Structure formats: C-alpha cells, structure tokens
Design the sequence.
C-alpha cells in the first residue's frame, strides 16, 4: 500500500443555507479545496471521487456530485455510514489511492439538513437510524439516543452537567475565530445549565444545531504529491468500528465500543498512541458525547474525562486541544460533511494555518460516532509521512 | 343460569374532577387487558375458551382488535373474540348469555375504567329478571364518529330509565343501577348504592364487584338511555373481586405539537406483532440465549433459526432513563423513555414509561411491564409494553387492593 497525502482542503461555511441547494454547496466546497492546492489543481487530474452524504437531496448523491462539480468522466461512489459518513468517505478514498487504483481522488461530504420543514425533518432523519417496529414508534428522537448513554454515564462517573456545560462553553469559544462556524458567540456555564431542556440531561446548549454545508479534500498518492504541494498532510491511519445497533443490546452504555474499535484500528495503522495526538476533532453532537469519547479515544482514563475539562486541557492552549474549530456543537453538523470538515480543520492545523492554531501540532485525530451510536470512524493525520 | 367465578377491575391513575381519564397511551383494548390480567393472574388453570369485549369505544372499527386482546391477555390466538358494541346493559347481557369459560370484558373511555368477568360452570349465580330495548338516542354517534348530544337530562331520565322501569322493571328495589350517575341512583336503590366510577360497559362490572365485596344478594340493573337489563344475583364468596385501582392523580399537562404522523411499515408491524404484544422473547435452541426482539442469528453462539418463544418477566429495573421535553411533531410531550433490565434475565428493553409523570422515573427504580398503545401511526394503533414504576414505599407489590 502506498502512503497517501492530503494536498488540498476546503469547505463552505456551516449554516442554515436556505438560499443554497446541495448543487450549490458541493461546487463551493470543491472550488475552495481546489484553490487551497499550493501548486494548483487541474480538475481533469481527479480520477475518482468518494462522496459522503447521509440523506438524499435533489437526486441520487453520486450523480449530483458528478454533475454539479464537472466530474462526469470519473467514477463517483456515494458513502453512507450514519454520522461516520464523512470520515468513512475519506477512508474509502485512501484505500483507492493507497492500492494504486488512482493517484488523485476527491473526497466530498455534504448534507442539507434544513431542506424540509422543521416538522418533517424530525421523522425523515430519524427513520434512517431506527428500527421501524421497535424503536421508531417510541418517539426515540435523535437527542434521546445519546441522552440514554449520557444519563447512565452521569450516574456512574463523577462527571456532572457542569462538566458538560464546560464542553459547550469551550467549543463556543473556539468557534468565535472560525469564519466557517455556525454559532459564533460565547456562552457561560450558567447559560448552558439554565437553557430550556431538550431531552434530559441535554439542554439547548448541549446540542448541535441543524446545519447545511459541504467540505472537500484532495487525496493524492505519495508518488504524485510533489506536483501539488510541498507541505502535504499525511493520512497516517483510518479506522471504522461498529457496535450493536439497538440500545437494548449495548451492555455498557457509558462507553461507545464502536469508537474503541475504530480508534484501535486507526492507531494501529498509524503506529501511534493517544499520547501522540496534539489536536483532535471529536464528535460532540451533544456535550456529554465529547466527554465519553475522551475515554473511548484513550485521551482520559475511564470516568476521568471530567478532569480534562476541569483542567482546561482540551481548550486551545491546553495540553490536548479538542475541537479548535468549534466542533459539531458550534461549527455545525451537516452529517455527511462533518467528518470531512474535521479533516479540513486538521489539514489547516497541521500546516500551521488554522484560525485557532494549536502551537506545534504534528498529529491530529478526527472522530465521528453515529447510527445512533453503532458506528464510528477515526482518522489520524500527521505532518510527518510516518 | 350464569355463574361468575372471578371479577377484575382497572382504573387508570389519572383523574379530573373525580372522573378517571385514560392516559394518552391507553384505549379500550389496553384497559380491558389490564382488567383481564388482574383476573387471569388469579384464575387457576385459566381454561378460557372465548373472549367478549363490550365497549362503545372500539379502537378500530375496521382492522380488528381481537388479536391484540388475545396477545395482551396471553391467551391463545385461536380463541373466538366477540367485539360487542354497547354500554352497561350490553355488558350484563353479554355475561348472562356467556357460556362457561368465557372472559367478558368491558371498557370505557369517559369516564375511564375497565372490568373483567370470568363466567364459569360454577360460582356466583346470576338469573335474568327482565330486559327491554327502547330507542331514545339522546346521545348519538354514527359511523363518522361525531358525537351528537341532544342535551336534555330530564327527558333522558323520564323517558329513558323511568319509562323503561315502568315497563320492565323488577318489583324489588335494585342494589345498584349501572349506567347512570350516582346522584340519580340514590333513592332508586335498596340501600346505599356503591359509587361506580364509570357509566358504560365497565360500570356493570364495578357494580357486580361492589355487590360481591359486600356479599349481598339482590337485583342489579344496567341502563343505557332507553335500554334496561335486570338480573338477580346471589351473594358472592370472598376473594371473587380483584382490583387494580391506583389512587387518582391529576393528568399532567401535555403539549401537542402538530406535525406529520410517524409513518408505519405494516410489514415491520406484522413481523413484530406477536413478540411485541405477547411480551415474548425468542430462546436460542443452540445456546439458550434470549433474543428480544427475536432475530435470525443468535448474538451469543451464531446459530440461526432454531428459536422457541420465551415468555418475558413483567418486573423490571431502570438501567437508564431520559425525558423528552422538546416539542416533537406529531407527539405529545413531555414523555420519558427508559431502558429497563428485566428481572432475573440478561434482557433489556427500551420502552416508554406509563402511569407516572414524565421525568419522575430514575435509574434504579423498579416497576412492572404493561401493555400500552405506544403510538398511533397512519391510523393504526401500535401496541407494545411500557414501564409502570412502583409507587414509592411499595417496591415489590403491585398496586392491587
């Protein structure tokens, strides 16, 4: 297998893009990715594309990407793996390049959450990850899926709602400097704790917003990387992990085994350990999920995640900044785009160009968990070839 | 001659102004099942051969309620089910005409309550006295479901019950009159008539239950507008009546958010129906592991296909629980979801909570699993089990008095 690098990265802002359809957002992200390539990119160089889109908007995703971005001459594969879609699209492209099948591949992620009425969005999206007979009729809305885990986590661990609030405060503060972020305002722990409850133990500020957006990465083989940049970011490891789909079959709901499996595979491929990570983009669709994920990714001991936020270790300026982009919480969460956008952030971090630059960042990790908590993707990027 | 062996009653825990109200997850079928199960838990050997449900509030006029009744009651699905439209007299008629080994159920929505009577070859004897059917549709509801109320209580009293009594009433003053308000009953009855919580089919069962508990013999009347049935009953032995009648509490405020209905897949509904409504897991023939919901491939040993049904326990403890407070299109909020661990088994289920205000169920709470209408999707009631937490202070006892 050949080494694989990222030579370009771009994304749209994440927002309620009522005025932009998926056919607008995709070329916008691909265009910004193209312009980020230091030595330029001839779009005809792209030999294949992998497109992560969770839902289907305005037609079948692969065709929409090919048509809207001028890629009808190359094979395009749609990847859908719940909230792990973006990082899994990258994973598949990496295999396509590493294997020698293509030298230059495009990875795109995108979703239009705010495309149907707020009322109908609820059940349309829920239908994608629920058992129609056993889960769906219960009213198992998206926050409830994660709240069932976090309620038990709060019961067993020393973490409290205050620790969750600290995650929200941190990620909102990080988003202030990120021009692509959806929620660019600071909040306080008190505001988080006093916000209207969505699903106990999540208040409004514990939850990600609904977002539209797209992101793109140019993935190239080691053999050709010099044509595009002298400062590539290397894909060191990719991992995908799954778990039992139904909550009733998850033995210990204070942890996400899918994350442990995905991270284990990614770290093994990279030959790195959690201690080697300088900056991470961690799936924080709900604040408590970021805490649990610290433990599953190996950044904290079991039930020790609260100590990291208490010590501000995961704030920019701390020992392991997490979600310098603002995370899903404040940057936004168009699911197909989310994982790809995490890697856009890491690309900039590892090249020293990020809005919230983590000093000396050499290894970055991106993480998604979804489906609702039955699939995880982890990507490890590095400034060094490895 | 008809003999009653056992009587079961059920009242939902919600009330307003002294009237019991059904929870948002209850209907005539779930309430009839509650009353029926109270009785069946005391029926040695069971041996039920047919089921009659009397109500004016059948959840489905088309589509059928019988399969849910049988599954919820844990009775074989080859029993005859009669869905009989009627009020208090129809319930009394159904008991009188029932053959032994018939479970006769009555359920009402407003006021809400349900009752069950096991008709047997022996037991407390009932004898028909008189019956009359007259038409006085002061309240009328046709197939469009719209209730029309003529709103003339004096006409109803004079030309309804009183006129029927003049034509067909027994000579003796009755013990009680099922189907009319308590205020009207006083003065008509022999002694101090019991307070009956309902006015429809189940009122007859509540009257039979009161009579049995007082161990009185006498005449019982059941009235609905112009229709009247009278029976003579001998005194019942102690232990005939079993009640599930929790104390009434105000129905918590609920927010109804308009929105699209959750769609239903009838194919998925059909595959899930028996395990979901009968409360049965599948037991692996290879390793004995339980699967709920049932599945093809065993999670433990990987064997496929060799499954047998396994009845699940009805006691459980909360492993984790959350409360949905945000408005949810098409649903009433707030509501609580709980992951509960079933007693003595390595089986967890994700369920709604019931009979408790949303947000009051906590990790570690114990309770029982009971049939509820979990959702209505595309007009189809979707039945499944919900977690009814124990009242504080009685962790292991059902609320049976």
Sequence:
């Amino acid at each position: 297998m050949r080494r694989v690098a990222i030579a370009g990265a771009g994304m749209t802002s994440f927002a309620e893009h009522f005025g932009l359809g998926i056919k607008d957002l995709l070329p916008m992200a691909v265009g910004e990715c193209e312009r980020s390539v230091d030595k330029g990119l001839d779009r005809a160089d792209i030999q294949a594309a992998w497109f992560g889109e969770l839902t289907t908007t305005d037609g079948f995703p692969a065709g929409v990407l090919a048509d809207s971005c001028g890629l009808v001459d190359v094979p395009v594969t749609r990847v859908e793996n719940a909230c792990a879609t973006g990082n899994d699209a990258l994973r598949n492209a990496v295999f396509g390049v590493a294997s020698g099948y293509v030298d230059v591949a495009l990875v795109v992620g995108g979703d239009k959450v705010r495309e149907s009425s707020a009322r109908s969005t609820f059940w349309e999206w829920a239908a994608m990850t629920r058992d129609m007979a056993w889960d769906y009729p219960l009213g198992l809305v998206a926050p409830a899926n994660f709240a069932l885990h976090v309620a038990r986590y709060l019961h067993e661990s020393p973490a409290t709602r205050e620790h969750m609030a600290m995650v929200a405060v941190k990620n909102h503060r990080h988003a202030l400097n990120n021009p692509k972020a959806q929620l660019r305002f600071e909040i306080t722990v008190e505001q988080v704790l006093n916000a209207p409850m969505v699903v106990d133990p999540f208040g409004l500020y514990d939850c990600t917003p609904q977002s539209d957006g797209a992101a793109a990465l140019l993935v190239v083989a080691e053999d050709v990387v010099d044509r595009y940049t002298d400062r590539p970011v290397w894909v060191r490891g990719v991992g995908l992990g799954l778990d039992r789909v139904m909550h009733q079959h998850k033995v210990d709901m204070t942890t996400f085994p899918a994350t442990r499996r995905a991270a284990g595979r990614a770290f093994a491929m990279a030959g790195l350990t959690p201690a080697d990570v300088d900056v991470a983009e961690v799936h924080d669709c709900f604040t408590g999920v970021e805490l649990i994920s610290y433990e599953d990714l190996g950044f904290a001991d079991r039930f020790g995640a609260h100590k990291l936020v208490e010590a501000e270790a995961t704030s920019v300026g701390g020992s392991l900044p997490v979600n310098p982009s603002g995370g899903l919480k404040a940057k936004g969460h168009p699911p197909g785009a989310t994982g790809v956008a995490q890697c856009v952030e890491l690309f900039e971090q590892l090249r020293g160009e990020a809005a919230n630059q983590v000093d000396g960042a050499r290894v970055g990790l991106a993480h998604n968990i979804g489906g609702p908590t039955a699939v995880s993707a982890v990507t490890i990027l590095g400034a060094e070839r490895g | 001659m008809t003999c009653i062996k056992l009587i079961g009653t059920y009242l939902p825990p919600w009330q307003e102004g002294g009237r019991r109200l059904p929870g948002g997850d209850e209907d005539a079928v779930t309430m009839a099942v509650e009353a029926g199960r109270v009785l069946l838990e005391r029926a040695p050997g069971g041996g039920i051969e047919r089921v009659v449900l009397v109500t004016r509030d059948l959840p489905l006029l088309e589509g059928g309620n019988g399969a849910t009744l049988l599954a919820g009651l844990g009775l074989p699905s080859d029993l005859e089910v009669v869905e009989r439209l009627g009020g208090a007299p129809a319930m009394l008629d159904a008991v009188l005409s029932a053959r032994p080994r018939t479970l006769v159920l009555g359920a009402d929505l407003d006021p809400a309550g349900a009752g069950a009577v096991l008709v047997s070859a022996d037991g407390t004897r009932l004898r028909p006295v008189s019956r009359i059917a007259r038409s006085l549709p002061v309240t009328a509801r046709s197939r469009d479901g719209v209730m029309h109320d003529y709103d003339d209580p004096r006409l109803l009293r004079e030309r309804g019950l009183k006129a029927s009594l003049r034509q067909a009433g027994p000579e003796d003053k009755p013990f009680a009159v099922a189907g009319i308000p308590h205020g009207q009953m006083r003065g008509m009855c022999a002694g101090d008539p019991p307070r009956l919580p309902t006015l429809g089919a189940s009122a007859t069962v509540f009257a039979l239950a009161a009579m049995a508990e007082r161990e009185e013999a006498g005449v019982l009347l059941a009235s609905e507008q112009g229709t009247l049935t009278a029976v003579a009953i001998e005194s019942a032995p102690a232990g005939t009546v079993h009640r599930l009648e929790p104390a009434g509490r105000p129905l918590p405020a609920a927010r109804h958010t308009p929105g699209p209905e959750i769609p239903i897949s009838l194919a998925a509904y059909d595959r899930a129906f028996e395990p979901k409504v009968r409360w049965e897991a599948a037991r692996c023939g290879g390793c004995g592991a339980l699967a709920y919901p049932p599945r093809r491939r065993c999670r433990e040993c990987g064997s496929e296909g060799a499954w047998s049904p396994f009845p699940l326990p009805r006691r459980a403890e909360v492993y984790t629980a959350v409360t949905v407070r945000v408005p949810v299109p098409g649903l009433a909020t707030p509501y609580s979801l709980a992951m509960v661990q079933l007693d003595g088994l390595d089986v967890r289920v994700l369920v709604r909570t019931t009979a408790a205000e949303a947000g009051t169920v906590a990790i570690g709470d114990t309770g029982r699993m009971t049939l509820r209408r979990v959702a209505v999707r595309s007009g189809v009631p979707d039945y499944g089990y919900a977690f009814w937490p124990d009242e504080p202070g009685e962790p292991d006892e059902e609320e049976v008095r």
In short: The first strand of chain B starts at residue 2 and ends at 10. The interface with chain A takes residues 257-260, 262-265, 268-269, 271-272, 276, 292-293, 299, 319-326, 328-331, 335, 337, 339, 347-352, 359, 363, 374-375, 377, 382, 384 of chain B (CB under 8 Å). The first helix of chain B runs from residue 28 to 40.
